[in-house]
Amino acid sequence: EVQFVESGGGLAQAGGSLRLSCSASEFSFHDYAIGWWRQAPGKEREGVSCIRARGGTIYYEDSVKGRFTISSDKAENTVYLQMNSLKPEDTAVYYCIAAYDYDCIDPTYWGRGTQVTVSS
Q1: Is 82 exposed, middle or buried (0-12, 13-18, 19+ CB in 10 A)?
Q2: What is the pLDDT of residue 55?
């Protein structure tokens, strides 16, 4: 059974940093786009960042460009999201995802999510 386990969420002050990690078991990143989505209170889920499949490019949602950095360790089946200069509007549940596609638009697998709360 494929399982994604996120960690690294928590409480941060505005301007601070957090690093999210996602480890995947029974899964290989090859041929999958991997990334992060988030859902803020009262809002729909949105894509935050994506490492496109087969050596594709990296996508960032406009509001996180220059502040968040996605990376992966394929040997360890782990994907990271370094979040710097956090803002209160980054408060959300963050989900690790994988899509059996070139892009992350339609995820195939979801993690359970990790809460990120940014105080002003």
Answers
A1: middle
A2: 81
